């Protein structure tokens, strides 16, 4: 298992070209946030905006539009239950995050099926939270796009049938192959399973055990995937910096809020990008 190092992150964060524009840094769609869990998709999309994503659109329950715009006016909005508009949006994107606060009801299942059907090979989709359950319980077909799952150990049980105290690297490698997806297995020291290698993240601490922390990571991962030289560099850098920021905050804070991590992403990226 390889360890994600500071030096790896420093070379992975891309330097922005002088004449670049927002279209160079990823067009992303965030799908989730029902009437009870709008905060999840707002945190996820905020993390992507603060990670430097060029254009972010949120597809959510209409009840969340004002809350979203008061937090991140940078993001655009569509009603996720308007399936025609939703699939049109999917078509224009480089990548999609689906699941934070999505819920698991019939409407959520229809949203999930519509999005997955529409995907192309040149796109990526990150499946998190409730969308993990829907993917397995509805036996949905593998989408054409690059697939990324970001399960915590409870969600990994849904995906792999392995109990949290039974999962192990060898069996996880086999499950990664069966699922034909990149797996970000979230835990105290998260592990990232690619087709040919496994990486481990070292930073992280219990001040991070608070609702919304994984939603925030999903947004960072997608934000980086849309900008970095390749998906692997983006995913590994996001996992590392998410918990590295939390370690710094935990030096002076008992609990690390997801929104505090989000606020620190641009400055931390700058520190790492300029420290070569
Ligand atoms: N502000 C908002 O809008 C927020 C919205 N959110 C949204 O809520 C949705 C549900 O996601 P979720 O992760 O909260 O719960 P859930 O699907 O019940 O977990 C499944 C099972 O896994 C287990 N389990 C969990 N962690 C584990 C671990 N580390 N190791 C081992 N087991 C673990 C857990 O066990 P339990 O804790 O019940 O014993 C349960 O049995 C999702 O869409 C998310 O985005 C949240 O992000 C919060 C903020
Ligand atoms: N004790 C801990 N040590 C290190 N990281 C933690 C700890 N507790 C939680 N985390 C991190 O916080 C995130 C929690 O994700 P998740 O359970 O999906 O949160 P949510 O769904 O509430 O947004 C993961 O990235 C996990 O690695
Ligand atoms: Mg989660």
UniProtKB/TrEMBL annotation:
Regions that span the bilayer: none
Enzyme class: lyase
Domain YjeF C-terminal: 5-272
Cofactors: Mg(2+)
Reactions it catalyzes: (6S)-NADPHX + ADP = AMP + phosphate + NADPH + H(+); (6S)-NADHX + ADP = AMP + phosphate + NADH + H(+)
Pfam families xref list: Carb_kinase
GO MF annotations, alphabetized: ADP-dependent NAD(P)H-hydrate dehydratase activity; ATP binding; kinase activity; NAD(P)HX epimerase activity
Annotated keywords: ATP-binding, Kinase, Lyase, NAD, NADP, Nucleotide-binding, Transferase
GO biological process, one term: metabolite repair
PROSITE patterns: YJEF_C_2, YJEF_C_3
Assembly mode: Homotetramer.
Function: Catalyzes the dehydration of the S-form of NAD(P)HX at the expense of ADP, which is converted to AMP. Together with NAD(P)HX epimerase, which catalyzes the epimerization of the S- and R-forms, the enzyme allows the repair of both epimers of NAD(P)HX, a damaged form of NAD(P)H that is a result of enzymatic or heat-dependent hydration.
HAMAP family per the UniProt record, alphabetical: NADHX_dehydratase
Protein name in the entry: ADP-dependent (S)-NAD(P)H-hydrate dehydratase
